[in-house]
Design brief:
The complex is a heterodimer of chains A (503) and B (498). Chain A has 503 residues and is mostly helical. Chain A contains 19 helices and two strands. Chain B starts with a helix and ends with a helix. Classes of the chains: A mainly alpha (503), B mainly alpha (498). The A-B interface holds A 379, 382, 386, 393, 396, 398-400, 404-405, 408-409, 411-412, 415-416, 423, 427, 430-431, 434, 438, 442, 445-448, 477-478, 480-481, 484 and B 23, 65-69, 71, 107-108, 111, 136-137, 140-141, 143-144, 147-148, 151-155, 159, 162-163, 166, 170-171, 173-174, 177-178, 181-182, 184-185.
């Protein structure tokens, strides 16, 4: 059996899962080291899967040799491969950051004593790998119930990671727990309805059997609402800012960059594969309108925040809005909006992870993250500010960056379908993003001296990790054909043709 | 190696790479930084010279990289592109030398020169851009790279100027991008073509094309500081003098004006613009800007502010020449791209010298400065007289061709605008010249930095002297081969006699 024939899709899930268990068993002394070393390993396995998909086209793997409808299938097409590549790259880079983040810093105690830190470090890595495994599983599963399981693991590991910060984060984590459980419950209800009606759970089989009717519509509504709650689309975003802003910095980065995207990915898959036959134009319009409100409202909230982490969190609320503008554009007959939306997911993931890491580093360096007291930080940590600026360029959708490519594609789709409202909103969102990004950046250029006392050395990895992520967000603007080619492997957007989308 | 493919990219990168390397340098590595700066500038000039020679003999240089399916990043060395590239390459070298002297003892120099180099890269990219998509990429890059320069001093005042600058330019950039995407969704991807690419669509989409034209002009007009989109330019004069030179002469306003040239000649085509009736509106806008800018310049006491309003006015000569659209007016407009650059950079260098050496910033304090700084003020006087349009200086050549070109196509009112503007130019420049040379000094200067035998540091003194000489030569030798005028005639020939 050659390397390309191995079931890499399975290993993508099993490797982080087994390593998570190993980290847990190894305990306080060796666990963190093992966790840190696992990251490159899992990333290596993921890249093998991506390579396999590029070389041999979409992969389908039936667990235990049992085919659907009896067994559970994994499917890796270009879209899942791209999501896995994105996830692995980001988690890998953030892992380096996290390793330094949880090291005891010289001469200072943060959030309590060293014991507390060791305790948090011990539990961080197993949860971290568990979250990684669940995301991979979610991107690869082709079975509605299996997806439910991945959603639950993802939600619970995220909540636990948020709560690791202690203090205020416990309240935020509690709220997050309720939200994520409620979302999964809605989703599960939908699954139950579909299973009772059609007797299959496999996405492709279901897609072939589904026809419009009250049960399907009910399932559609339940699952959509549940996933919207998890994706934090306005007005269901209420839990996001506190959860994302209070978590430890590496966790915030993953939550904003990847976790909300996982439920979005699922929503796209369901709309395309399972609910393709429904003519959900009105729903698409509604999602688009909510997305537009999210862009404007989230950006304005970001402008008003005093703390950097909250600003970045509200920026996520706004940027999620763009993802939902895609639905009406596709429904109105511009299937090219799908790749644009997915490209947005990827470039935002890198940019936002970079921003949260920058926020974490600045908070570590200054001992606070109050924006109006940032004078002189550019002088002390130019790399971090530069990274923040580069990530900001992508958020604003200015060239050359992944955000620019995505914005270009979305705007083209909006003009093509003559959706003037969305066109204006996409543009306004970019300008508002510029306003809140430069609100932070201008302090870095101020000639006023830094007022916050230095908090000791900041580890090099905490400066470089966000920089690398931000540079990738920029490079995505220069190498767009490759990710676009990858995501089209296996034609994941096939059902989005106007024939199905329009009456 | 395939020079035809790589050369344009290398010209752009020859300032980008030194810029990125400079970011990595610690503040105190002044010698390495200077070497990188000057090395990059000289290498760029050498590459430009090679490319210029090739373009003169009609050899094609084109870099093409696909960024999005259907949309290529194209850098193409046409005669028009080379005109702007040569200007920015030459002036970059001088401005770098000037900036090294000007910022001596200042802070954040690595940051400054890093962004400075990226700015010039972006400007070269704008010049070489072979289609609207590439143009937008470099145009926005320029906006981003200029911001840190505008706020370089970090005072509340410069931070405010930076905010205003961004608000104007990013909003303008958004309009431009909107127009470009819209145009592409109408006609699909296309490259710049001498004579215009939109003629086949003119009948079908007349109305939409008009709307898109205004979007594009609004987006470009912000940087070209067309009235009423000029508000950022006078505020941005709080930036250090080399940055002002960059904004006013080398990069930013030029990028806007050059974009308008591209849109009229290489996207729409003169014929389509005329048929849609857009040339009249553009010419009217330009005339208004010329007069309004000059009138406002009259009222400024701060020297750099007066120069800034003068830029508002002078850059619109380029737009006016483009809008009148006869062959001769075209020559006048495009040649002004270089002439205005030479004149205005001289004036800003001189203003910077006065400020740095003797602490004079206001015109009312300029009595007798000619005695203290004779070479600087001589350069200033030459550039100011050229601005007014005194023969045989560079400004006269531009105005002559504009006037004759307007008469050629029967737009007689333009003469009135040119005369009025020249009178206004005289009204705001002659008092300065008079005060500098003929009034006695009011007393001791606010500060006095003297270096050796010269009136100021050599790095500050020679750049304006050189550009002032260039202003004279561009006028006197206008008919020699490879003069700016000669090159523009080549461009106009290729435009009008295909």
């Amino acid at each position: 059996m050659t390397l390309t024939q191995l079931p890499w899709a399975v290993w993508c899930i099993m490797a982080p899962l087994l390593l998570a268990a190993a980290c847990f068993v190894l305990g306080k002394r060796w666990g963190p080291l093992a966790g840190w070393l696992s990251a490159p390993l899992v990333a290596g396995v993921s890249s093998m899967l991506v390579w396999q998909v590029i070389e041999h086209g979409p992969q389908r793997y039936e667990l235990g040799g049992w085919g659907a409808p009896l067994g559970i299938a994994l499917r890796a097409d270009g879209l899942s491969a791209l999501m896995i590549a994105m996830t692995s790259a980001i988690v890998l880079i953030v892992s380096f950051y996290a390793h330094s983040y949880f090291q005891p810093a010289h001469g200072l105690t943060r959030h309590g004593d060293a014991d507390d830190l060791a305790h948090r470090r011990q539990y961080f890595w197993p949860l971290w790998l568990l979250m990684w495994a669940s995301m991979h599983a979610l991107f690869l599963s082709n079975d509605l119930f299996n997806i439910y399981v991945t959603l639950e693991i993802l939600g619970i590991s995220s909540v636990a990671l948020v709560s690791l910060a202690g203090g205020v984060a416990l309240t935020a984590g509690m709220r997050y727990l309720f939200v994520t459980l409620t979302g999964s419950l809605f989703y599960l209800l939908g699954v139950a309805l579909l299973y009772s009606a059609f007797g299959v759970l496999d996405l492709d089989l279901l897609g072939a059997r589904v026809e419009a009717g009250p049960v399907v519509w009910a399932a559609f509504a339940l699952m959509t609402v549940g996933l919207l709650l998890k994706t934090a689309l306005f007005p269901l975003h209420f839990w996001l800012p506190s959860a994302h802003a209070n978590a430890p910095a590496p966790v915030s980065a993953l939550l904003s960059a990847l976790v909300v995207k996982a439920s979005f990915f699922l929503l796209v898959r369901l709309w395309l594969v399972v609910f393709g036959p429904l003519d959900a134009l009105e729903w698409a319009r509604l999602l688009g309108m909510l997305g537009s409100v999210a862009i404007i409202w989230g950006s304005i909230q970001a402008l008003r925040q005093v703390r950097l982490k909250l600003l970045v969190a509200y920026s996520t609320v706004a940027q999620i809005g763009y993802l939902f503008v895609v639905f009406p554009l596709v429904a109105m007959g511009a299937p090219s909006a799908w790749p644009g939306g997915i490209y947005f997911v990827v470039s935002h993931a890198f940019a936002k992870a970079a921003m949260f890491l920058c926020a974490g580093t600045i908070a570590r360096a200054l001992g606070h993250d109050r924006i109006d007291m940032f004078h002189g930080v550019g002088k002390r940590h130019p790399v971090v500010i530069f990274a923040f600026g580069l990530a900001g360029i992508s958020l604003m959708g200015l060239p050359p960056s992944g955000g620019y490519i995505a914005k270009w594609m979305l705007l083209s789709a909006a003009i093509e379908t003559e959706q003037w409202v969305f066109m204006v909103v996409i543009h306004a969102g970019g300008l508002l993003a510029a306003a809140y990004v430069f609100r932070v950046l201008q302090h870095a250029f101020s000639s006023l001296p830094c007022v916050s006392p230095a908090q000791g050395e900041v580890p090099r990895a905490m400066e470089l990790a966000p920089f690398v992520l931000a540079v990738i967000a920029i490079l995505l603007g220069l190498a767009a054909p490759y990710p676009l080619m990858l995501m089209e492997i296996g034609d994941p957007f096939a059902l989005a043709t106007p024939a199905q989308g329009q009456p | 190696m395939n020079w035809g493919f790589w050369l344009p990219l290398m010209v752009v990168m020859s300032s980008m790479i030194p810029g990125l390397l400079i970011f990595l340098l610690p503040e105190e590595r002044a010698v390495t930084r200077t070497l990188l700066n000057l090395g990059g500038a000289l290498l760029k000039l050498a590459l430009i010279a090679v490319m210029l020679w090739g373009v003169y003999y009609d050899r094609g240089y084109e870099t093409r990289i696909t960024l999005l399916p259907g949309f290529d990043l194209v850098m193409h060395a046409s005669a028009l592109a080379m005109f702007f590239v040569v200007l920015s390459g030459l002036l970059w070298l001088l401005t770098t030398i000037y900036a090294i002297g000007y910022l001596e003892g200042g802070q954040n120099k690595s940051r400054f020169f890093g962004f400075f180099s990226i700015c010039v890269s972006a400007t070269t990219g704008i010049a070489l851009a072979g289609n609207l998509f590439s143009f937008v990429v470099f145009y926005e890059l320029l906006t981003l790279a200029t911001y840190p320069l505008v706020v370089h001093r970090g005072t509340p005042e410069s931070l405010k100027a930076g905010r205003v600058y961004l608000a104007y330019t990013l909003a303008g950039g958004a309009m431009l991008m909107l127009g470009v995407i819209w145009l592409h969704s109408l006609v699909g991807p296309f490259d710049f073509v001498e004579g215009g690419a939109l003629a086949p669509y003119q009948a079908e989409h007349a109305q939409l094309l008009t709307v898109i034209f205004f979007l594009l002009i609004a987006g470009l007009g912000v940087k070209a500081s067309l009235v009423p989109l000029h508000g950022w330019l006078p505020l941005a004069m709080v930036a250090p003098a080399p940055v002002s030179a960059l904004l006013h002469a080398v990069a930013v306003v030029k990028a806007g004006a050059f974009g308008i040239v591209r849109v009229v000649y290489d996207v729409y085509g003169v014929r389509v613009v005329e048929v849609l009736g857009l040339d009249e509106i553009l010419a009217g806008l330009a005339a208004l800007t010329i007069l309004y800018g000059s009138v406002l310049a009259l009222h400024q006491d701060n020297l750099k502010r007066r120069l800034a309003y003068s830029t508002v006015s002078q850059v619109s000569y380029i737009v006016l020449g483009v809008a009148i659209a006869g062959p001769l007016a075209t020559i006048g407009g495009i040649v002004h791209l270089v002439h205005q650059g030479l004149m205005k950079i001289t004036l800003f260098f001189c203003a910077g010298n006065l400020g740095e050496t003797i602490g004079v910033h206001r015109i009312s304090a300029m009595n007798g400065v000619g005695r203290r700084m004779p070479l600087t003020m001589a350069a200033f006087t030459i550039a100011a007289l050229a601005m007014i349009g005194i023969p045989p200086l560079a400004g006269f050549v531009s105005k002559w061709y504009l006037g004759v070109g307007a008469l050629e196509v029967g737009e007689n009112w333009v003469i009135a605008v040119l005369v009025a503007s020249s009178l206004l130019n005289a009204a705001y420049f002659l008092p300065i010249i008079n005060a500098a040379w003929f009034n006695p000094p009011d007393g001791p200067w606010p500060k006095d930095v003297r270096r050796g035998r010269l009136e100021t540091m050599p790095t500050l003194l020679w750049p304006p002297v050189i550009t002032a000489c260039a202003v004279v030569l561009a006028g006197v030798l206008a008919n020699m081969p490879f003069s700016p005028l000669d090159w523009v005639k080549l461009i106009a020939n290729r435009l009008y006699l295909p």
